[in-house]
Amino acid sequence: MYKGCCDHGHGIEEINLADGINAILDEMILNIYNLQGTDGSINEAVTKHISDKLWSGVVKGFGGDLASFDFDTPDYNMLKALKENVWQFSSAKNYSQMRELSDALLDANGNLKSFEEFRDAARLINDKYLKTWLKTEYDLAVNGAQMASKWVRISADAGILPLLQFDAVLDSQTTDLCRGLDGTILPIDHPFWNRFYPPNHFNCRSTVRQLPSGTVTQEDKIPSSEIPPMFQTNLGKRGLIFPEDHPYFIR
After folding, report:
1. Would you say residue 17 has pLDDT above 50?
2. What phi and psi values does residue 187 have, to the nearest 5 degrees?
3. Residue 48 lies in domain
């Protein structure tokens, strides 16, 4: 799912499965096999595990949890929105996982696999969802929360710092997507930021710099870039980590 999307080849930090999750996953595999599929519900224990991991990334990136901020302040309200988004995403992720596990019950001829065959296939699916893909999603949670926190500051200081400058990390690993946007300076309320405020893809390293003044990019000189559809929005402004166009939500 997450191919060709990185500015760099490594994540923020390793994610390890919590103690006991493997036993929960094996129980889930057995239940799906015995029921010969899923009834469309989610596994609450697995969903909570996913949500807890992603929320820890949000807290890391934002610089605190809900208890760190006064009730009903901009920081608190942003974090509250991010937490709701993380739970919805985790539920959608587990739903997709359960659907894929159900699809793995049958062999190429449409016959029910033996339990051993299904279990081996199911463990590979679970590794994909809870190790490989969860790592990428965790990194986005950290990065997205950093940019959401920054948007709170941007909004608060808009009166004295009315401009934003797009800042890409320029090195051999930078994507053309972000390289072409680097240096763009526009007012905070310009439509450009509704589309190109970072992150613009998975593992995006770009950020923005808030300025009191500067040479504003001319309208006919404003660059564009082919951002993946699910990132064509200002996630920080909207209080999201995972956009509605993510494949989990679509499915």
Report:
1. no
2. -60, 155
3. 21-155
* pLDDT band, residue 94 (cuts 50/70/90): very high
| 26 and 147 assigned to the same domain | yes
166 in the same domain as 137: no
> What gap in Å lies between CA 149 and CA 238, rounded to an integer?
12
List helix spans (H) across the chain: 21-35, 44-62, 74-103, 115-127, 133-156, 176-179, 192-196, 235-238, 247-250
Which residues, other chains included, contact 158 with Cβ-Cβ below 8 Å and sequence gap of 6+? 188, 189
The DSSP result for 101-146, as a single string, is HHHTTB-TTSPBPPHHHHHHHHHHHHHIIIIIHHHHHHHHHHHHHH
**Domain assignment present for 249:** no
Q: Judge if 226 and 151 occupy the same domain.
A: no
Residue (of 137, 145, 251, 158) closest to 207 by Cα position: 145
pLDDT at 46: 95
Q: What is the pLDDT of residue 177?
A: 86
Final residue of a structural domain among 121, 155, 189: 155
What whole-number percentage of the chain has pLDDT above 90?
Answer: 79
CB 50, CB 94: distance < 8 Å: yes
| pLDDT tens per residue across span 25-38 | 999 999 999 999 98
- What is the reported pTM? 0.89
